[in-house]
């Protein structure tokens, strides 16, 4: 005999389930096949982080604004908003291989274990951790992707498994996506501080994410907000991504490989793809619908350094950034922490030509954006 809740209309079931903590939602999905289907459609907003240490997770959540110190006790799902889940998964360090221990004298190893148990564990390499993070991410997206409207993922990078899960399960329904791969507070084990200074390496995984090449039937095409932090997506891949998401109005890039003149000139209508030159509306910039564009900690925005910008005439005072003029709907533009761009140059260009209500000048990160330092002894 079926339970009474399964007799209700699906819309009402989903509304009821949206108020459950995540643990209770999982338990409900295990009660029957019908309830399993209902619980997979319930998640509309999910923030997922996969880390090796709890302290890494806590700091990343705080820096991203996913939580506050006062809310840390409620991260598990209590007192949450409806349909909004923040989940942090900790993958413990691997046990040291037996072959590593065989060469140690038994008495010495026992003494070592008694004095410092942590030495019997070892961190995953960066590549191993990325594979593990994307494996977990793919499992979650494959199960809940059909109902997700808003998704944010914290990890070290995107690989083919995670990209395929996104491209195949969240094609049209996903409106908000944030991929956050920048975690400068993580600097132990095989991860060096310099890891976070540059974008992640380029990868063909982004082609799967876009649904190009061998997977034309996949790819995201309903995005309205896209946030990429330390992403290895290339300018061409980023161009294809924006093309496939015509409703995109918010684009926030931080330490992103794709934030280069090749992409930006196309976005602002300064240059076009060959197949676009014969279109009737080719005088309109592809990025004309964007309301928010952030290019933070992106150091290749300009093709060449700007010199003697004070002497540029007013009509050309945005030399090198002419593409901004084509973004006619823009309400917020940020160059925060982007080197090689003089703040006075941006300020003058906006005052004379752009007239954008909010422009964040390229000062170095201070205040709220300053990295959180952690005593290595706590790690």
From TrEMBL:
Pfam family, one: F-box-like
SUPFAM superfamilies the UniProt entry points to: F-box domain, RNI-like
PROSITE patterns the record matches: FBOX
Segments forming domain F-box: 2-33
Protein name: F-box domain-containing protein
UniProt lineage: Eukaryota, Fungi, Dikarya, Ascomycota, Pezizomycotina
């Amino acid at each position: 005999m079926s339970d009474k809740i399964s007799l209700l209309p699906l819309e009402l079931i989903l509304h009821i389930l949206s108020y459950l903590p995540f643990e209770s939602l999982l338990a409900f999905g295990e009660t029957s096949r019908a309830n399993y289907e209902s619980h997979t459609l319930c998640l509309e907003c999910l923030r997922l982080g996969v880390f090796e240490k709890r302290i890494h997770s806590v700091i990343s959540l705080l820096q991203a604004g996913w939580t506050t110190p006062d809310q840390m006790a409620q991260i598990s799902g209590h007192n949450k908003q409806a349909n909004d889940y923040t989940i942090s998964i900790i993958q413990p360090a691997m046990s040291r291989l037996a072959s590593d221990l065989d060469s140690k004298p038994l008495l010495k190893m026992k003494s070592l274990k008694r004095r410092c148990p942590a030495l019997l564990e070892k961190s995953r390499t960066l590549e191993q951790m990325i594979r593990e993070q994307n494996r977990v991410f793919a499992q979650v997206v494959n199960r809940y992707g059909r109902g997700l409207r808003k998704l944010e993922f914290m990890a070290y990078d995107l690989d083919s498994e995670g990209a395929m899960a996104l491209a195949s399960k969240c094609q049209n329904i996903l409106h908000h996506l944030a991929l956050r791969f920048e975690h400068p507070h993580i600097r132990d084990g095989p991860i060096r501080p310099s890891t976070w200074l540059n974008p992640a390496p380029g990868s063909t995984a982004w082609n799967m994410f876009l649904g190009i090449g061998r997977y034309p039937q996949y790819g995201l095409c309903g995005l309205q907000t896209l946030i990429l932090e330390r992403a290895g997506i290339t300018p061409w891949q980023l161009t294809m991504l924006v093309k496939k998401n015509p409703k995109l109005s918010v684009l926030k890039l931080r330490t992103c490989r794709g934030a280069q003149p090749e992409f930006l000139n196309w976005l602002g209508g300064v240059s076009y793809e060959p197949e676009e030159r014969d279109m009737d509306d080719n005088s309109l910039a592809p990025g004309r619908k964007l309301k928010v564009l952030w290019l933070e900690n992106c150091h290749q925005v300009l093709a060449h350094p700007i010199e003697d910008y004070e002497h540029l005439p007013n009509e050309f005072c945005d030399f090198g950034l002419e593409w901004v003029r084509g973004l006619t709907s823009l309400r917020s533009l940020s160059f925060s922490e982007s080197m090689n761009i003089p703040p006075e140059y941006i300020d003058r260009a906006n005052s004379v030509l752009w007239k954008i209500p909010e422009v964040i000048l390229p000062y170095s990160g201070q205040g709220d954006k300053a990295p959180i330092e952690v005593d290595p002894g706590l790690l």
